[in-house]
Design goal:
alpha+beta; 2 domains; three-stranded antiparallel β-sheet
Length: 340
């Protein structure tokens, strides 16, 4: 069973990572930062449609500053979604700014609405953390998903990743007679493999969403990470395998009914082959990222020591024991996938 007992500590973005982010258009001078958003006057609890406390609180700003804050937030959205083209925000307005006070990073969630048709979107503003940035970048490069995010000094801006929260999917969809259990369980095997290969931890059901796509004949599922704080931090191998989190047990039990060991092995090989293809397609950018990551300190020596020992045993590959950082462990894992 995978258990994380302590809060993850944040790590500063170092100059080398900042240079990488600038090179690949992730670092941008933004019109507002996280610290400015903290200057609210009060908060009010936010309840969902059923009257349940969401654990988010809506923040209220001084009327004299609110227009300036909201205008800056719309410009951030233009930077995130349209390369700074402000013409896209003329018909948008900021409906609400929420803060999650119970979370480790106390993120802000901004709800932005199209005044023409009432369509809405969200984005998030947080304190930057190098671990999370590496997680976002690896997700962008090595998964089937593309990620929009920006950094500005100590501020991190992220797009909203749409989907059904994993815990809600387990409660409301997992036993639906219309569920294609085989396809969903296959996707979980592939998700499990992706997380392990790039060492993304803590993928219990509250930290991923399920995207459902109807096709002309069938339904397809994709599981997407939404929390990247535990990128290459913990020392336990099991933390990087979603199958070991008790919150995901219902999915594992379903998989035992529909997935044979032979099928599971096939899906793992398929996913590793896809990752190898992405490594080849993005080899220059991955190389630039790894040059920075292997020299960065995003965990503690005892955790690196434990993880490299467990990975060496898992792969029966003593070369893991030579690794001195979490970045080197990720690099070695990717080299194995690429067949080096």
């Amino acid at each position: 069973m995978a258990i994380i007992t302590k809060k993850k500590v944040p790590f500063k973005i170092n100059p080398a990572l900042r240079e990488y982010l600038t090179q690949y258009d992730r670092e941008l001078l933004l019109p507002i930062d996280y610290q400015t958003l903290l200057k609210f006057e009060r908060t009010a609890p936010l309840f969902d449609k059923k009257g349940q406390d969401t654990l988010w609180e809506t923040v209220l700003y001084d009327a004299r500053n609110m227009d300036e804050v909201f205008t800056a937030l719309k410009m951030v959205y233009a930077d995130l979604k349209a390369d700074g083209d402000v013409s896209v925000i003329n018909h948008l307005f900021i409906d609400r700014v929420d803060i999650c006070l119970y979370g480790n990073t106390q993120p802000f969630r901004i709800r932005i609405v199209n005044r023409v048709n009432d369509n809405f979107d969200y984005f998030y503003i947080k304190l930057s953390d190098a671990s999370r940035v590496y997680g976002l970048e690896l997700e962008h490069l090595l998964s089937p998903n593309r990620i929009s995010y920006l950094t500005c000094r100590d501020t991190l801006v992220e797009e909203h990743i749409a989907g059904i929260p994993g815990d809600m999917f387990i409660n409301n969809y997992l036993h639906d007679p219309n569920l294609n259990a085989i396809r969903f369980c296959k996707e979980f095997v592939k998700f499990n493999e992706r997380c392990f290969v790039r060492l993304l931890g803590d993928m219990h059901s509250s930290n991923f969403v399920v995207d459902i796509t109807p096709d002309f004949e069938e339904v397809y599922y994709r599981i997407r990470s939404i929390d990247f704080d535990q990128q290459s931090f913990e020392g336990k191998k099991s933390v990087y395998l979603p199958q070991y989190f008790k919150q995901n047990n219902a999915i594992i039990q379903l998989g035992q009914k529909y997935i044979t060991p032979e099928s599971m092995r096939q899906y793992q090989i398929e996913e590793r082959s896809l990752i190898a293809g992405r490594l080849k397609a993005e080899r220059l950018r991955i190389s630039d990222l790894m040059k920075v990551m292997v020299r960065d300190s995003i965990s503690f020596p005892d955790k690196v020591q434990r993880l490299k020992t467990e990975l060496a045993q898992h792969y029966q590959n003593p070369s893991f024991l030579k690794c001195l950082s979490m970045g080197e462990l990720v690099q070695k894992s990717l080299e194995i996938v690429a067949g080096h």
